[in-house]
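Input record (one chain):
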Amino acid sequence: MQIIKEVCVDSYKDAVQVESNGADRIELCSRLDIDGLTPSHELLIRAHSNLTIPIRVMVRPHGEGFIYNKNHIYEMKNTIKICKSLKVDGVVFGCLNKENDLDYDQINDLAEFSKPLKVIIHKAIDFSNSVFGSFEKIILNKNINGVLTSGGERFAKDGLKTLKKMVDLAPENFEVICAGGITNENFDKIHFELNAKFYHGRKIIKY
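The corresponding structure, as predicted from the sequence alone:
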């Protein structure tokens, strides 16, 4: 089984560095200090023009949680339009409602709009009232290709039981991207517990 190590980066320099150090894929963001926002169009275009590994793009217009109004959705769709024109590998987003459940209306709308790009629901799912219940609904949406999750915890090491259930339940060709404090130092231990195919982290490879 091929293991995919995806590295989140928020600069062109880091994107080039992690590619040269063996990353299989990047998630391109800005402001990783607040868990990642939408990258600038300039950074997106530059990275896309110069990297050879797949790029997935964070689509998150603000850092105040994951609740979005109509203006935010409009902004997110504009970013997705650029991603579609560049034919990046995929987009990464997640929406919650005021009750801390996934906002399926917004997610379904954005997921359909994003096609033919791959669509990944990010760690907003970990802030929902039932991470596994949310996962069971998400895997039924044929426009969604994966989730990026720590199993409802801040760190993957604390959510291993739920992550393993997700990995085992996921349909074929659906990505459960395990994330949350996974580094090149603890990777082998976490992989031994999960035997997953997809992993994500800022320091998941040495660079």
